[in-house]
Amino acid sequence: MDIELTSVKSQFFNEELMNFKKKAILGLSAAALAMMATACSDDSSNKPSTPADEPIVNPDPTVTDPTQDPTANDPTQDPTQTPTTGDSTTTPVDNTPATTITTPTGLGLLVDDFEDGNATSENIGPNAGWYTYSDVDNGGASVITTPENDDGYPTVTPADNGTQFGFKVNYTLDVGDYEYDPYVGWGVQVPEDDANAKFGGITYWYKGGAHEIHIEVSDVEDYDVHLMKFSASRVWKQAVVRFKDLTQGGWGVEVPFNAAHIKAISFQAKGSKTKVSSDSLFIDNIYLQDTSEVEKDQPDMTINPATPPKVTAYTEADIAISNPLQAKAMKYLDKGVNFTNWLENADGKFTEFKHGEADVKLLSESGFKSLRLPIDLDLYVTNRKAFLGDSTGATTLEFDDVALFTVLDSFVDWTKKYNMSFVIDYHEYDNSYNATSAKSATYLKMMAGVWQHVAEHYATNDREDLFFELLNEPDMTSGAVKAADWTLAAQGMIDAIRSVDTKHTILFGDIKWYSAEELAKRTELLKDDNTIYVIHTYEPFAFTHQGGSWTDYATIKNLPFPYDPEKWSTVSGDFGVVKSTKSYVKTAIKNYYKTGNKETIMNLVLKAKLWAAKNNVPVIINEFGALNLRSTAESRLNYLTAMREVSEALQVPLTHWGYTGNFSVVEDGKLIEGIAEALGLGQ
What we know:
Layout: E1 9-10, H1 28-39, E2 93-94, E3 109-112, E4 130-134, E5 143-145, E6 157-158, E7 165-173, E8 183-189, E9 199-208, E10 211-217, E11 226-230, E12 232-242, E13 247-248, E14 262-270, E15 277-290, H2 324-332, E16 336-338, H3 357-366, E17 370-375, H4 384-387, H5 401-417, E18 421-426, H6 441-458, E19 466-469, H7 483-498, E20 505-509, H8 511-514, H9 516-521, E21 531-536, H10 541-544, H11 583-590, H12 592-595, H13 598-615, E22 619-623, H14 633-650, E23 655-656, E24 666-667, E25 670-671, H15 675-679
Parallel strand pairs: 2-12, 16-17, 16-23, 17-18, 18-19, 19-20, 20-21, 21-22
Antiparallel strand pairs: 1-4, 3-15, 4-8, 5-7, 6-7, 7-15, 8-14, 9-12, 9-15, 10-11, 10-14, 11-13, 24-25
Helix pairs in contact: 6-7, 13-14
């Protein structure tokens, strides 16, 4: 990826270097931000833009959207704030009062207090000037501004916190033609020095919008920088960052943090590609802490005995399903796996095979019986923009059939050859179906037309183990689409499929990330008697998503499954809880002795199974799994075993999320040790 940074401004560079201002080498922070933006995915958000490796799942459906606050862009809350223009994305606000800020002193290093009246960090070096950058050179339209000195470089702003000066940026985040979330940033480069190894953290004061601080080290070669996120605050607030609590973005190679190799300290403000937002951020008194000054973890938990919930009582008659589709689901949709990180991505239109016949053969010979292929089908609509409302006013969908059916036909053939069922899963990480587009008749017509085109292509295919999955996790970024709207869209796609193909079975999952609870609320079935219902579960989420960079569990680590008091601690910091950890995540860790068990999973799946039995339709799980980032192999195998045991008890088929990557079942071309036994492959 070629990244140019024409928007970089810094007094750090002398005249001889100015010719290189367009090159990424002058601002790895900006390149890092660009790479971070592209990596966000997946998602999963969030999944949001998120790393494509990850499924998007709401970590706590009971928690309202933390990104929404009506005062976040209200200029009356802060006289120094730039008013928002256009549609805006708001950020959470912390109104903790602060008066005069303190200037840190001690064994550490005051990076910059800006009291010298310029934006050069003299304590770092005479040429250590602050720079700014934006997404403009990657096609974005974001704008970042600061006061400038006579030479046109960023300089300080008079402060309102008891000091004379601070460093302030005003910005507008506008995606423009950029493919990912818009961003702006600013920072200062730091000379690498072994003496920096003594630093264990950094503090600074800020006032304004939500942002990230990046502590960039030279060991990171793929721009997957170490960072921490902070919410907006309309009063001056001190940010305290322990280097032990930093996490990387999650898409690159994991690199241990080494303070001796710090090369830059930078900040990033990031927006939404669906909104234009404006804000500002004031920073002051940036201080690198000596390790002796860094706050130590303190005991804050009790080691409790494992206390699993009581499993809801049921009988075999309660879960019996006579519908022939139940036997079909058990025969063809159990012991399945997903091919991920590929065709479902926003830029995932097929060009070449990342996975192919050899992978299907390996899976089949390892005991897997089903392959689910996530693919964003509307990427193959060549006149998509025109159809959805461009001035050309297209009325008929046009497709890139060569690309679309090269990949689909190949997997149809290979799965048949190796005796695996095949699920075509309409799966989009760009979240183009959302609460807004769900109200658009034109958008629903496009979705239905896409499925009609695919179904017509396979209408004469006599395979009974070929399945059409309508749309994975509708509105997967926010989960805000309403059940009635999703039902309307789903029925439209079903009707379009059935107009050309009455044979192949359809798969349907409900709102809020294929929620079992939402499915159990459904009072009417879809108008199609050849439909199988689907749920996803990643419970206990604290275990399965510990270390997930796109979740609020990014710093969480070392949670065992199942919960074991012998492996527990009285210090939540031992499990990655940090100052910035969300309160509901802290609560989840403290309550893990009650939720980290098979019984919790059983009760969740049982809700869907009892609903399915009541309505005499099958239900399956075609996404579950645990990240391999911060848990042990033993715990992951225990979790997979628990899922299989729940599946067998309730006769609910399973398809694992992930073939390779952070949810992998294979490594170095062979099945990971213990996976076959845990999932019951070959049985």
